[in-house]
Amino acid sequence: GAVVSQHPSRVICKSGTSVKIECRSLDFQATTMFWYRQFPKQSLMLMATSNEGSKATYEQGVEKDKFLINHASLTLSTLTVTSAHPEDSSFYICSARTTTSGTGYSLNEKLFFGSGTQLSVL
Amino acid sequence: RKEVEQDPGPFNVPEGATVAFNCTYSNSASQSFFWYRQDCRKEPKLLMSVYSSGNEDGRFTAQLNRASQYISLLIRDSKLSDSATYLCVVNGSGGSYIPTFGRGTSLIVHP
Fold this sequence. Notes:
By secondary structure, chain A is mainly β. Chain A has no helices and eleven strands. Chain A is 0% helix and 48% strand.
């Protein structure tokens, strides 16, 4: 099955540090990448949607200057948490979706998830 | 009202029990539905898609009720390994192709 590789799996950093999280689709082209954040015992909260070659679309309340998303190729998307603070500590996870050829998205397409990144900001 | 709502639980059941979860969605235009399973601090994994006709996979049965706008997941003969959080995902709300997650229902199966 399709695999999304997410790195790093865990980051512990000092406040003010910028942290970069990578998601790579290993055997398919990820036209769309979703970035989620999950606090303990909470649901996955969509942060942004990125399409290859275009600017990401951020959800309301998510600062685009703080959470920089780059989706420069069909196999790589990155999320950079700039100047991280303790309140940014969370589980960050990406998921990828492919397009069906010619007809756009199929609503029955499954999501392929990265393994997640646990960010702890001291 | 949230787009996708689930009872967070936890549902605490003995091995062998049958347990059912519901998930309600607010947008009647929603097109596709899924149940995912998430273990603590792991990525969600697809458990099953949910079709109008209902579908069954071993001990798991999923059903969709469009009139009442909910989906359900039934687990029979619960195993200890079924302990996890079960996430409901709704796709295609209002023409959007962005999947929306419920907050998940926690299941604890004890000996």
